[in-house]
Amino acid sequence: MKNVFLLLVVVLMALSCSPYKTMVDYDTTKDFSVYQTFNILKGKQQKGIGTIYANRVANSIENQLGIKGMKYAAAADLFVKLDFKVKQKKYVQSNTTAVGTRPGYYHNGRYHRYGYSHGFATTTRSIESYPEGTLMVTFIDRENKDVVWVGVAKGAFSRKDMDEKMVNKLVEDLMKDFPSI
User: What DSSP letter does each residue of the chain carry, written as one string?
Assistant: First the structure.
């Protein structure tokens, strides 16, 4: 029983260490079974986001929608709009080190203090910047131009994080709540 609990704690810790957060919202009044086809549109793409990354995301979304039973078509039921954005965020870390004494003496096993102390403390701060990326996937009904589903993934990404395996995992996590056909 103790080993099962330990395994559960380790798994939960590993799952909570995801480098990104995903959020989804959709129109609960829509019947998603009427949507059989999709077409991917390229939305706003910030300068510096290469077409390689945009194509990886588009291919991964196409694969996920194929798993859900949808097909790619030029005249589609749903338009899928992709928006990418990267901002440089700052992280401030402070470390304080203190050294000092408070003079006193031991008498009969008890420590007695004088009324003064001396010492010093130093605080060092380091400011680091990191890229924070946001991917927004919007599904739009072709007929009435309504947004029916929105997914947002946000996190600290570097170029090495955007390999095909990472993109596939990110899109899979983002679209896990997309209704199946």
Answer: -HHHHHHHHHHHHHHHT-SEEEEEEE-TTS-GGG--EEEEEEEEE-TT--HHHHHHHHHHHHHHHHHTT-EE-SS-SEEEEEEEEEEEEEEEEEEEEEEEE--EEEETTEEEE-S--EEEEEEEEEEEEEEEEEEEEEEEETTT--EEEEEEEEEE--GGGGSHHHHHHHHHHHTTTSPP-
